[in-house]
Task: inverse folding
């Protein structure tokens, strides 16, 4: 069943990026790839919008950025999650769970 | 917080961040394209664009993260403001300097005010500590110099002090002391390695430190138990501890020997404590040692004891004062008429400490505040002028789409920057001047060592300046709203004529001139007072005369009683040691190189003890009081005093010869009226004395007190244990001071050589506070005049520019240049003259307050006011002439064609 891909709710993008980066440091394209792969195409992200989000996360000190060579010998900027980033991710995840549960309760009631 | 910091850093490296972003986006897009190509998609480019989104928009989004919106604008505004400042360099520097002068002067003056009047004294809860004075109900009317204490402060008698301690114990805890100030018995001498020194020592009841609430820095203070258990306990000041004991921390509990009591007997004291450096009780000169005054010895009707008290918790000063009212009656003679009975006055200790300096300091701070006002008005009026010039610029910017908020912010930035520069400069001035002030303030100012710049005060003045500046810079924006953009732009040559602006400017220059006139009039009155005061004829010449005071208190110098016939009181003859000391001192000092003349007196002009003797003519009842001075043959010639009639003392006037005296002219008048005093005799307890000469009245107390009648006795016939050397030094003589000290030490190492100085220095010190306030006020007034001139020049130059067209037409119609110059100058000079009149009127109306600072000068002195007015108007005319000369250079053709 191929449902129409959902766009990401505002504020969720940061959480998803941080989650991806817990696997390993990645460049922007890598993050986009893994988001699509993990969500099995159920979520669609305009890939360019990752970059303002990454700038925001970097300024908040949740990720760090460094230039490295890619597997096929190109220069790319790799982002890594920081300790603060992991903590923020945990908080956001907990908040998201609460939200989802609350929404579910409402939908199932009556 | 951290995020903003990073953002700020990012703002600065925006360029690099953007390059990096472009590179990583390119990489991303390439990857997408390759992926699509591998999948064999045909419209890879479109697909890639869909997946990635608009790179331009994303860059724009990211860019927002690299800047702090207001910071960027502020930076831009600052850059613009600095460009404006650079373009009108002199204007901006002048405005900033003007503000700096106002802020700096106030920062410095208020630093003094704060140290003297505001800062709490170093006691626990100093507001609860009061001085206890005896106050006569009838105060003698004294319209004299109120720079001196307004109230006389007689100390209560010992009995009264004792009663207060006993009977008012429920409202105050009082302590009593014998001060070193003017009280011989309370002083100690200390033997140092190379000399003896008189200490400023006090005797205090053992609860003294508890009443003040002042703990010791080392050891302890006196306690109530010390009176019985440890009567030799003594507390030292920090200064004495350092000077005499090398700051030895082991001093506590150690016995020290001081020469104490009337006969300077070596006495052992035990040091129990050292006070902290900031502790002080007597201002401006600090007490150096405190020994115990037993309560039982206080209770005496003859000696005056100073008393300080702490109000009990919950008792107000009024309540304590009311409680005191009944006490004097119990110790006073009930037969005294009511007007001679005393009451007790409680005075907050802070008032006592600052009483002498308070009026002068308030005057000075008032003058300083006026200067700040002038500085603010000057800058405001200059900014107003510039605002008119900038109207075109602002209109242009509004026309090309600058929002009114944006323009407002720009002007605000300019004002704030200007104020900041002024504040920085002012703080710098205050910081530089305050330490100098500490050295310059007259010795009579208490707590001068505590003078320091206060950041909050500076901030306050800076804020005042900033408010003015910003208000003045914003004015054009406020007016610009009413100015029609098109009409402003159409104005020829960028010159706008704005009637309300011109009115403002004239008002401001007038106000400035009024303030300056007030200050100048005050300064002029002070200068004339000072000039009259220091010009008072003294009757002697003291320049280059070295003086040193000695008091021979040791027992061996005391007069010996010659055994008379049984039943008679016997007669006293001077101690041979005293006579020998006197003769040796004179002969040895006389041999010093550079000292041609030497004399001895019991009292130095403007200083020392002037005994009052009440004598009467032989056979007459009426008696006349005079200051008795005991002098040698050299005294009169050293001070260049010549006899008006008769002769002065000679070597022939000795112990064995007939007793003689010299009297002053006023004494002669009071005692003998129109009779010739020479050869008349005056009776004293121990025989008669013949008047041999008359000298002029010498102004001996201060410049502003009329000479008191005086009588002189030869020291050979009446040796005095109080001995002041006066030695006229040749100009350029050096080492005399040290040599004289050496001679005194050789004669008796236990005799302290006190207060060594020169007579002219004593005279100068006596008016040093007047000099200080006069110089300070004059300096500030001068600055005020200068600022007013600056303001005037700006206003007149502006008038010339504004009236260019009108003037050009008048030139074209054949007006003479001199007439035009006059018409332009009038525009500036008339408001200045009107302002000056207003300022002088303020002094005129406030003459009651001004009077107390003056000496033989009427605050409404007509001539002086006229002079100040003339100075201001002349200066204004001269200042206005320079810019108005440009009128003659106006080329009618050029201006009119330029339309």
Result:
């Amino acid at each position: 069943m191929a449902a129409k891909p959902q766009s990401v709710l505002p504020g969720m993008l940061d959480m998803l990026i941080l989650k991806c980066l817990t696997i390993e440091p990645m460049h922007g394209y890598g993050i986009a790839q893994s988001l699509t792969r993990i969500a099995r195409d159920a979520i669609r992200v305009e890939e360019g919008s990752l970059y303002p989000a990454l700038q925001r996360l970097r300024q908040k000190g949740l990720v760090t950025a460094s230039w490295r060579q890619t597997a096929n010998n190109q220069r790319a900027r790799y982002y890594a999650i920081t300790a603060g980033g992991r903590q923020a991710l945990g908080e956001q995840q907990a908040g998201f769970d609460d939200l989802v549960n609350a929404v579910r309760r409402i939908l199932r009631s009556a | 917080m951290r995020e903003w910091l990073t953002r700020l850093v990012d703002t600065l490296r925006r360029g690099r961040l953007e390059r990096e972003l472009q590179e990583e986006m390119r990489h991303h897009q390439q990857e997408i394209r390759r992926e699509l190509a591998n999948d064999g998609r045909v419209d890879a480019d479109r697909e890639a664009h869909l997946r990635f989104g608009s790179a331009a928009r994303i860059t724009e989004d990211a860019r927002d993260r690299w800047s702090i919106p207001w910071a960027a604008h502020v930076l831009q505004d600052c850059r613009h403001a600095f460009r404006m400042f650079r373009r009108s360099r002199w204007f901006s520097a002048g405005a900033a300097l003007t503000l700096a002068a106002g802020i700096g002067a106030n920062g410095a003056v208020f630093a003094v005010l704060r140290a003297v009047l505001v800062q709490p004294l170093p006691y626990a809860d100093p507001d609860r500590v009061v001085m206890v004075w005896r106050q006569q109900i009838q105060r003698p009317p004294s319209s004299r110099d109120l720079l001196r204490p307004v109230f006389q402060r007689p100390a209560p008698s010992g009995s009264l002090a004792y009663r207060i301690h006993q009977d008012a114990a429920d409202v105050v805890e009082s302590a009593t002391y014998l001060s070193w100030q003017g009280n011989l018995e309370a002083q100690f001498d200390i033997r140092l390695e190379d000399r003896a020194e008189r200490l400023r020592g006090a005797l205090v009841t053992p609860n003294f430190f508890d009443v003040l609430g002042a703990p010791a820095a080392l050891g302890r203070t006196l306690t109530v138990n010390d009176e019985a258990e440890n009567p030799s306990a003594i507390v030292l000041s920090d200064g004495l501890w350092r000077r005499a004991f090398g700051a030895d921390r082991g001093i506590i509990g150690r016995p020290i020997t001081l020469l104490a009591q009337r006969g300077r007997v070596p006495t052992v004291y035990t040091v129990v404590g050292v006070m902290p450096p900031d502790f002080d009780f007597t201002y401006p000169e600090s007490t150096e040692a405190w020994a115990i005054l037993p309560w039982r010895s206080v209770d005496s009707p003859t000696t005056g004891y100073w008393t300080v008290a702490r109000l009990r918790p919950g008792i107000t000063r009024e309540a304590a004062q009311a409680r005191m009212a009944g006490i004097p009656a119990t110790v006073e003679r009930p037969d005294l008429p009511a007007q001679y009975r005393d009451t007790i006055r409680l005075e907050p200790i802070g008032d006592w400490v600052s009483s002498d300096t308070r009026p002068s300091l308030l005057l000075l701070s008032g003058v300083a505040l006026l200067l700040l006002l002038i500085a603010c008005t000057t800058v405001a009026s200059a900014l107003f002028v510039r605002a008119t010039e900038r109207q075109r610029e602002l209109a242009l910017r509004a026309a090309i789409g600058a929002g009114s908020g944006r323009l407002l912010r720009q002007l605000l930035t300019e004002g704030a920057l200007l104020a900041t520069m002024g504040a920085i400069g002012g703080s710098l001035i205050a910081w530089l001047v305050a330490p100098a002030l500490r050295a310059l303030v007259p010795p009579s100012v208490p707590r001068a060592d505590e003078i320091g710049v206060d950041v909050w005060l500076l901030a306050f003045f800076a804020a005042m300046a900033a408010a003015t500046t910003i208000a003045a810079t914003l004015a054009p924006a406020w007016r610009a709203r009413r100015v029609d953009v098109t009409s402003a732009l159409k104005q020829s040559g960028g010159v706008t004529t704005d009637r309300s602006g011109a009115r403002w400017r004239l008002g401001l220059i007038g106000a400035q001139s009024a303030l300056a006139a007030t200050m100048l009039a005050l300064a002029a009155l002070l200068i004339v007072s000072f000039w009259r005061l220091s010009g008072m004829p003294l009757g002697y010449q003291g320049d280059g005369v070295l003086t040193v005071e000695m008091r021979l208190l040791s027992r061996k110098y005391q007069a010996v009683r010659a055994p008379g016939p049984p039943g008679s009181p016997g007669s006293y003859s001077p101690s041979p040691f005293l006579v020998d000391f006197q003769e040796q001192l004179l002969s040895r000092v006389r041999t010093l190189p550079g000292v041609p003349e030497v004399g001895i007196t019991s009292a130095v002009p403007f200083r020392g003890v002037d005994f009052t003797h009440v004598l009467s003519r032989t056979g007459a009842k009426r008696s006349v009081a005079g200051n008795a001075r005991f002098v040698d043959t050299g005294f009169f010639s050293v001070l260049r005093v010549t006899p008006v009639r008769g002769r002065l003392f000679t070597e022939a006037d000795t112990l064995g010869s007939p007793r003689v005296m010299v009297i002053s002219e006023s004494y002669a008048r009071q005692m003998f009226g129109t009779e010739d005093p020479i050869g008349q005799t005056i009776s004293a307890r121990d025989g008669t004395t013949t008047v041999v000469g008359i000298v002029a009245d010498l102004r001996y107390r201060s410049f502003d007190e009329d000479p008191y009648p005086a009588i002189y006795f030869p020291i050979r016939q009446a040796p005095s244990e109080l001995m002041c050397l006066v030695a006229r030094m040749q100009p350029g003589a050096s080492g005399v001071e040290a040599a004289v000290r050496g001679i005194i030490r050789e004669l008796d190492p236990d005799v302290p050589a006190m207060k060594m100085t020169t007579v002219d220095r004593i005279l100068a010190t006596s008016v040093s506070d007047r000099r200080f306030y006069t110089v300070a006020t004059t300096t500030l007034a001068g600055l005020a005049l200068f600022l007013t001139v600056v303001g005037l020049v700006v206003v007149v130059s502006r008038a010339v520019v504004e009236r260019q067209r009108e003037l050009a037409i008048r030139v074209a119609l054949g007006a003479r240049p001199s007439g035009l110059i006059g018409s332009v100058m009038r525009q500036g000079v008339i408001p200045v003259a009107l302002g000056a009149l207003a300022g002088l009127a303020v002094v005129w109306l406030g003459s009651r307050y001004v009077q107390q600072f003056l000496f033989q000068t009427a605050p409404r002195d007509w001539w002086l006011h006229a002079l100040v007015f003339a100075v201001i108007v002349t200066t204004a005319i001269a200042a206005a002439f320079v810019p108005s000369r440009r009128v003659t250079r106006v080329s009618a053709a050029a201006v009119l064609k330029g339309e």
Observations:
- Confidence is low (pLDDT under 50) at residues 139-151 of chain B.
- Chain B touches chain A through 27 residues (CB under 8 Å).
